[in-house]
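To whoever is on call:

I kicked off a structure prediction for a single chain this morning and the downstream step that reads the tokens threw a length-mismatch warning. I double-checked the sequence; it's 137 residues and nothing unusual in it as far as I can see. Pasting both halves so you can look.
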Amino acid sequence: MTPYDFMRLSIEVMKKSVAEPRADGKVSPKVGAVLVFPSGEYVTACRGELRKGDHAEFTVIERKCGNRDLTGATIFATLEPCSPKSRKPPKVGCSKRITNARIKKVYMGIEDPDPDVSGLGLKHLLDNGVEVEMYIL
């Protein structure tokens, strides 16, 4: 499969997202993620797929592939991965999970439209040597 195919797949997976009620009244974004190993094998996840509130990147990195070496993998995410400071401890931001997992490249659909976090996940990725490309469909 090509990067274009994985981008399209992440969008299809995103449509299966499960929204949850939020105390701040905001609507939970739909998010799809596709984690691609250097071998070409891939694993998908969407927001709330396995547990209410879980981010797609968290689900694919920790819940589905937590016992695997992700060094050199690529992730396709429809929304900018959340920044390290956007999660309340003990939770870890998805961009931090990506750098901790030694994922080498992120294809990102859009920057987070929430002005409180927009661009901060992207900045963390770039500051930590992760290559980032925006979707071009």
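Update from on-call: the warning came from a stale cache, not from the record. Cleared it. Sanity check on the structure: The radius of gyration is 14 Å.
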